[in-house]
Here is the input.
Amino acid sequence: MAWLLITTCLLVTSFVSADDLSHWNHADKDSIYSRSMNDINSHLDDVHREKRQAFTEAAVYHVTQCNYDNTQCCNDGASIEVSGINLQYSHATITAAKLVHRMVRFMPRHIFVKLTNKSNGIGLFSSSDLPLDVFEEFYSVMPTQCRTTCNNVYLDGDSTYDCSEWCTTSEYPSRPNYPQNLLWAYGNATRTYVVETNIVCDGFNTGQNYENFLMREFGLTLMTRVFDNDTLDDIKLAYENTSATSHWGDLVNSYDYFMKATQIWFDGITRDVGDMTCLHIFDNNQPKCNDLYEQRQNIKTLDRSMFDILNYVYNDNREYLNGDTSLCRW
Here is the structure.
C-alpha cells in the first residue's frame, strides 16, 4: 500500500533561478543561531512596521504525505502550509516544501495529522528581515518593545508588559531565554520559521553549510507540539543512557538530542555530533559509510534506542525506506 501511495504522488520539480542576496556582516560568534544586537537596532530604525504587512509578497505550498503543491490544499485538510514572505530567492519556498514532504511522507498518519493540527506550518523569511517584519502572529500581537528583549517593558503610560513569552524557553539548546525575533530559525513558535538562505545554501548561509536549520527545528516542533508523554519519556530515557557515552559529542539536553538526531536521520548536519555522521567521517580519504541508509544503520549500531524512535516517528518502523535528503540537495 505504501508503494502504491509513493508511485501516485505528483512531485513538483521545476525551479526558478535565484536572485542575488545582499549580505549582512555578522561578526559575533553566536551569529550562526542569531543576529547581533547592533545589526538589529540599525535595521529596526529603517523599518516602518505599521506598514510592513501591506507590502508583503508570499508564496505558499501545501505539503501532504503524498505531494506538495501551490494550489488548494487536500480534501481532508491534513496538510502543512509552507509559506515564503518577501524572499529574495524565488525557489526557496518550493525547495523547503519538497524537503518537508520528504521528511513527513513515511511517518505514521496520526503523527502527521496531529502535526497539521498543532502547528501553523513553516515560514521562510529573508535575512534582511525579522520575523516581526513578515509573520502576522508577530506583527499583529507582539509589542515592538519586545523585539530585542525578554524583560519587562513599558508600554503606554505606566503599564508594563512581560516580553518573556516572546522568547525561547530555558531548555532551548542553542540560545535559551533569547528573543525569538532575533533567531535565524525556531521550532517552538506558532509556526516553525527559518531564514531562506539556510534552505537554499546560498548567500549569507547562517548554517555555514554544515547544518540544516529546518530539519533541526522541525524536530523541536515535534517534541514541543506533537509527541505524547510516552514518546517524550522514551527520548529522555534514551538521552540519559547515551549521555554516558561519547558517540554524540556534547549534548545539552533531550531536546538537543532529538533535534540533532533528526538532522542525522536526514543527513542535515556534517559535524559536531561525535561518531554519528559516518557519511562525513573519513578514513584514508574515504567516508566511513556510503549513503544515508548506512548512516541510519550507524545510528542503529551506536544508539539503538534513538534509532527505534526515529524509525517509528519518520518511517513508521520501515527502516528500508530511504529519505533522499541531504544538507543542501534533495
The CA atoms of residues 9 and 67 lie 6 Å apart. The two ends are 24 Å apart (CA to CA). Strands lie at 58-63, 68-69, 80-85, 122-125, 152-154, 160-162, 185-186, 192-195, 282-283, 286-287.
